[in-house]
């Protein structure tokens, strides 16, 4: 029997989109503030993983839920196991959306929503690949497991738990973000640099906040500064906004001058796709004579880290023959 798989995929398109809409509606961001025994990473990631298993049970597949941390869908039989490693968690939505990030929208042949490309959409496409095989009576001679993790976006909690309780697969790939597949991912490390709280007298940095997660380019930054010359400071900020690829606003408060910068959030897999609001804020502040730890903090961000996703300024750049360039993101400030 010859099967036109491209045409078959088109036949399943609407069913796929219907299921994807349900997945996108689940806010599966890790929520440590609402951890419970049943939901160790918060309800969202587990509920999205369970929705995948619900689809599979509806369609007659074997499934297993491993403590609401990771689950898998199984098809085929044989001595060897092929793993399709995917995840149901998503990054925080952040600002700047023109639509509700947790309501799937179809427009001009594209689908918008948090997780459409990373990784609910690709994971569901892999599932529908299995479904098409099953519906057409094709039984693989290798056991295939579509593994759905719940915290790939940081420390791979789901896969770590899977390997604690299940045997390692013999081979596999990851349907995650890039078509058609990913067969390797770079490792990552998170470094935290701390500074004191000392300031000078003419300029005082009272607050600086930017970023939601270490592996996201911050799209917003806020700072609160006391100055000896508010008018000069505000005029300089207005010029800075005009001369750089960021937007923002400034206002006087009872505690000082409040600054806000809006850049462009992006996934840290390629920081160049974003505009880091935090390092731009530091670059603006760096032109003023702060002192003490405030000066060191600002200068470190502005002079050593700003606009340098390959870490050349701190001599930490590296290129691997297989995995390519190492990338550095300044995620939380």
SSE map:
Elements: H1 5-11, H2 13-24, H3 43-58, E1 62-66, E2 70-75, E3 81-87, E4 105-107, E5 110-112, H4 120-135, E6 143-149, H5 157-165, E7 171-173, E8 203-210, E9 216-217, E10 220-227, H6 230-243, E11 247-253, E12 256-262, E13 266-267, H7 277-285, H8 292-305, E14 319-320, E15 324-325
Parallel strand pairs: 3-6, 3-7
Antiparallel strand pairs: 1-2, 2-6, 4-5, 8-10, 9-13, 10-12, 11-12, 14-15
Shape: elongated
Number of domains: 2
Spatial extent as radius of gyration: 24 Å
Tally the beta strands.
15
Strand order of the largest sheet: 1-2-6-3-7
- CATH homologous superfamily name of the largest domain? Zn peptidases
Element pattern in H and E: HHHEEEEEHEHEEEEHEEEHHEE
Provide the CATH top-level class of the largest domain: Alpha Beta
CATH architecture assignment name of the largest domain: 3-Layer(aba) Sandwich
Poorly predicted sequence stretches spanning 5 or more consecutive residues: none
Count of helix runs: 8
Quick one: biggest sheet?
5 strands, mixed
> According to CATH, what is the topology of the largest domain?
Aminopeptidase
Give the N-to-C terminal Cα separation: 59 Å
Proportion of residues in β-strands: 15-25%
Structural class: alpha+beta
Share of helix, binned = 25-40%
pLDDT averaged residue by residue: 94
């Amino acid at each position: 029997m010859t099967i036109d798989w491209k045409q078959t995929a088109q036949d399943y398109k609407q069913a796929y989109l219907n299921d994807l809409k349900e997945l996108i509606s689940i806010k599966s961001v890790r929520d440590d503030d609402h951890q419970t025994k049943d939901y160790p990473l918060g309800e969202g990631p587990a509920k999205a993983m369970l929705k995948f298993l619900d689809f599979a049970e509806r369609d007659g597949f074997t499934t297993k839920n491993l403590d609401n941390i990771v689950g898998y869908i199984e098809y085929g039989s044989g001595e060897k196991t092929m793993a399709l490693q995917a995840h149901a968690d998503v990054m925080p939505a952040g600002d700047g959306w023109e639509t509700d990030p947790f309501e799937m929208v179809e427009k001009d042949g594209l689908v918008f929503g948090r997780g459409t490309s990373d990784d609910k959409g690709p994971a569901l496409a892999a599932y529908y690949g299995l479904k098409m095989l099953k519906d057409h009576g094709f039984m693989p001679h290798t056991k295939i497991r579509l593994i759905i993790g719940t915290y790939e976006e940081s420390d791979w909690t789901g896969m770590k738990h899977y390997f604690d309780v299940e045997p390692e697969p013999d081979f596999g790939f990851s349907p995650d973000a890039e078509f058609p597949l990913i067969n390797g991912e770079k490792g990552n490390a998170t470094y935290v640099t701390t500074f004191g709280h000392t300031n000078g007298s003419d300029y005082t940095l009272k607050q600086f906040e930017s970023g939601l997660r270490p592996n996201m380019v911050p799209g917003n930054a806020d700072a609160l500064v006391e100055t000896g010359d508010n008018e000069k400071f505000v005029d300089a900020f207005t010029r800075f906004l005009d001369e750089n690829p960021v937007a923002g606003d400034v206002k006087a408060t009872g505690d000082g001058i409040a600054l806000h910068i809006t850049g462009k959030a992006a996934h840290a897999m390629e920081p160049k796709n974003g505009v880091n609001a935090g390092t731009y804020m530091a670059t603006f502040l760096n032109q003023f004579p702060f002192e003490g730890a405030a000066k060191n903090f600002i200068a470190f961000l502005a002079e050593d880290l700003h606009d340098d996703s390959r870490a050349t300024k701190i001599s930490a750049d590296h290129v691997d023959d297989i995995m390519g360039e190492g990338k550095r993101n300044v995620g939380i400030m």
